[in-house]
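We both want to read discrete structure tokens more fluently, so let's practise on a single case. Would you write everything just below, so we can both look at the same thing?
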Amino acid sequence: MRASRPKVAIATAAVAALALSGCAASERDGDSGGSTKDTLVFGVAGDPKVLDPSLASDGESFRVSRQIFETLVRPEEGGTKVSAGLAESWTPDEAGTTWTFKLRTGVKFHDGTDFNAEAVCFNFNRWFNAKGLMQSPDVTSYWQDIMGGFATNEDPELGESLFKSCTVKDPSTVDLAFNRVSSKIPAALMLPAFSMHSPKALEQYQASEVTGTADDVKYPPYAMEHPTGTGPFKFKAWDIANKTVTLERNEDYAGEKAKLKTLIFRTISDENARKQALRSGDIQGYDLVGPADVGPLGNDGFNVLTRPAFNILYLAMNQKGNPKLADIKVRQAIMHSLNRQALVDSKLPPGAKVATQFIPDTVEGWNPSVTTYDYNPEKAKQLLAEAGASNLTLKFHYPTEVTRPYMPNPKDLFELLAADLRAVGITIEAIPLKWSPDYLNATQVGSNHDLHFLGWTGDYGDAYNFIGTFFDRPKDEWGYTNQPLFDLFRQADTTADPAARFEIYKQLNAEIMNFLPGVPVSHSPPAIVFGKDVTGVKASPLTDERFATAEFKS
């Protein structure tokens, strides 16, 4: 089990506390005198894992990094389409394997150094040439999800990297070359994991010096105390003891400057506590509003924003950890044992749906003809008997101290599904673990997990971002090898014609639901809320809310 992170910036506790109390007093007083409030405290459900998005895979890390860093391309505000970021334009060559990016000029990193083509190549070469623990799937999961391998793979299963090289054409022009055509380019480059960092800061604070072991990762100073991007906010302090990350406005930002002077993310893991903190004025907004609170908060004048359902909650079944789970009849029995509709109706917000596959029906490639598995406890018992697994015992991991967009209350969801499994004769060993780092590490590395909850909020609007991320190669989370499935994924990824690619996605969804590596549970529209006098933020299906546009009404 991974050790706790070292304490960082404890000296800022008093500053953060003062900011919190000051904001609370201002909110309660109503600020009717017309003065401008310039500090917003936003309640989040969990701590970030790290401040370097290249080493992160969790939404709370990305929420912070999206305010500090920028990417070459970015999602359109409130949507999923690719739009300009640090690059003004991007064009492929005739073969579709080399993309030329024209960069914005006059942009500087927070340390005063220039953003330019050399900085772009420095970042890509850092990722591509990663060594040691930087190649751990828990450390550079997004690079591996998108690019596959590295310049020199220490794990032969990684395969050839999609990325080939970066070439500086001139200070504002860069060529990114890839080893094959891929559906992921350029859309995947808007992921926070591909944010542009200051080369000077990366070197000064040993950004790639990840140490420890795969089970006990020690992150370098850059990832914990010195994130340096080009974004509208700069990092000020991470007070781990008091669960706050404090950012300040980047006065030298090349675009429209943030309206807030200070932005504080404050971890409040309990959703009721987040609600009470908003109502009391201790915070001015929070994410992952409880389904039952959406209506009352809106009726009371709070600004409730609902994101489109662009996510999936799933129950993973690890075939390597428990040999019985390698039997398709056991996996089918688990599917038939679960009353997913009851879960959606009782525990998820209005508009939530039972999932028939691992992508939402709004994404091209969704297949209306996949095999479905109705709630049928008697059939589940029959399948378990046929598999010789009537006395099956399974370890069921679920996270604590967290709420996710696809998972409003993990313990409640666990209890419902565990009861369904017990009802067909399966013995469940409950294993609750703190979300970060314990749960994420336990379910993503190794094979000591039979069942576990996880989910995904899409990063961009292509089916590969969902199903390819999960199933296009062997992963410890699922514990299986299915080479024909992996080959079909490669065919889809290298199919340049979108219409043809979407048909392969439909085939993949059908194959996945026949093979049944896990249970797609639900899609749900999560809500985010701000104070009555906070405006300017647009809900994003990708959870890419931009706090630089937030402001208090006078």
Notes: Residues 1-35 have pLDDT under 50 and may be disordered.
